[in-house]
Amino acid sequence: MDTLWKKSVWQQYGAAIDMLDYAISTCPDDLWTAVLWDDPDDPRYGQFWYVAYHTLSWLDLFLTGSYDDFTPPPPFIRGKLPETPYTQDVIRAYLKQCRQKCRVVIEALTDEKANQICTFAWMEPTFLELQLYSMRHVQEHAAQLNLFLGQNGLTASDWVAKAEE
């Protein structure tokens, strides 16, 4: 795969992850379990910590490329909520793992891997398209978390133009 494409994808993917990191690291303890929106399935799904965790869990899954081959690292539990919210330190450690995984995956991307079909119940994108989809997902939730912080008098970060080294 072309080096310029890989570099460009990484810089934008990394920037989205960095904006998520800034939002997570800016969140004070009193807002960590605050509700961004009501979720009819479980109120915790709308809490700040969960939106951050959800974003990282799907990032990790999409970097794997297959639901069947994915197992989140401890202490995370696939498919169910923990008894207590994950802490900010635990979530930030997961973010750092996912960021590194993302960089390695993108830098190692070959044409063959980029064209591999990834099958999910709702779509069958190529691996490359899945990464662009995931980048958009990360940015969406980073924006939601930053908006929430702003609505509560905090500013997480300015726009991140490209991944920080």
Short structural summary:
By secondary structure, the chain is an all-alpha fold. It has helices at 3-26, 48-64, 88-107, 111-115, 127-151.
Task: Describe the protein.
- With 165 residues, the protein is mainly α.
- The chain has a single domain, classed as Four Helix Bundle (Hemerythrin (Met), subunit A), CATH 1.20.120.450.
- It is 55% helix and 0% strand.
- The chain has 5 helices and no strands.
- The two termini are 22 Å apart.
- The model has no long low-confidence stretch (mean pLDDT 96).
How many individual helices? 5
User: What structural category characterises the helix and strand content?
Assistant: mainly alpha
Average of per-residue pLDDT values = 96
> Roughly how many Å is the radius of gyration?
16 Å
Q: Biggest β-sheet, characterized?
A: none
The CATH class name reads Mainly Alpha
Q: Architecture, according to CATH?
A: Up-down Bundle
Total domains: 1
**Pattern of helices and strands:** HHHHH
The count of β-strands is: 0
Amino- and carboxy-terminal Cα gap = 22 Å
Strand-residue proportion: under 5%
Helix content: 55-70%
Q: What is the overall silhouette?
A: globular
Per CATH, what is the topology? Four Helix Bundle (Hemerythrin (Met), subunit A)
CATH superfamily: dinb family like domain
Low-confidence stretches: none
